[in-house]
Fold these 2 entries.
Entry 1:
Amino acid sequence: QKKNGVPFWAFLQAGGQWEGSLSVRVPNYAETSLDIGVPLLYGAKAIQIFPYCFPNDWIGDLNADSGLIDVNGNKTERFEWFKRLITQVQAMADTLLDAKFQGVISAGRYENGLDLERMDKELWNECVFRGNLSNCENQTLEKFRSLEKVEAETQALVGCFLGENNEEIYFVLNNSTTECVEVNCIFNAEG
């Protein structure tokens, strides 16, 4: 959006092991939470779920574990995950929808619990988040306005936005699927 003014939307993976491949991972709850949070932190204005409902094209695929609604029309375990996480996002929607994304501050070491050597052998491994988004270097900030510094042991990301009246808005996210994080945001005296 910063480059050409067009808001971006994110697709979230709701399932896996499809198209005959058991190596397409099924994201767990923590990964789903991160899948929702990271795009919003980078200024996404909408999120889409793929697939929401088990695709008819995959009815013959006995291994597929896909969607929030299964092949028989029943809610999957992921349905409740997404419902809980989307409800949390809705609480921030009015603020984030009108906010102008400025960049992201990163603090701490990235830890996701994945065996990256094994992950490199997985199908579509280039889609696995590894602590930063490719081609987003120009959106990385050291500090933003009154936010002088962010401290965290494991990685925390802070999305920096400006509101309608030029007020500072911050979206703080634990960027780990395995670790809790304490985040210290240090503001200058004017903030």
Entry 2:
Amino acid sequence: TVKAFIDSGSNVSAKGNDFVAVSKADGSGTNEQVKGVSVIAESAEDVNVFTANLSGGGKAGIAANVSVNSVKDDTQAYIDGSTINANNNSVDAGQGVRVRAFNKTDTDIKGGGVALGGVGGAGAAVDNTLLENTTKAYINNSTVTSKTGGVDAVSITKEIVHSTVVSGGIGGAVGLAGSAEVVNSNNTNEA
């Protein structure tokens, strides 16, 4: 869980008299120069799974490889129950308020099973990947004031899935093989 927030009746004044570098929170890995208030939450997960199975037998060989992967991230940036820039006198014209959340999940799954048998060989490989990420950027029950820099709430989720699942069955008379890949993506992205 990654959270960046202003809450619980906070009263924040940011006149924006100078620039500060903050993350764009868009997956580019770059910063931008801003004036005012920035609430930024970012998370990144790199999941690498490698599984293999080899089986042999005089008459029959059976190999099975099952991989189950689950990623569940919660990334939130928010202003809740607070006052931002209540007294907006003598502030810089570029003053703004930014609330941004970014989540990236990159999975690389490789799995396989090979069976060798004198008479028959049966190999199977299955991968099940479940992605359940929540990414939110919001302003709730708050009074927020800014100049020409504006007020924005942006939420971005980026999911990358690479999966290779192979199987083999080798036998003198019979060889059977089967592979399956299941990706279940149940993400929430709100701004």
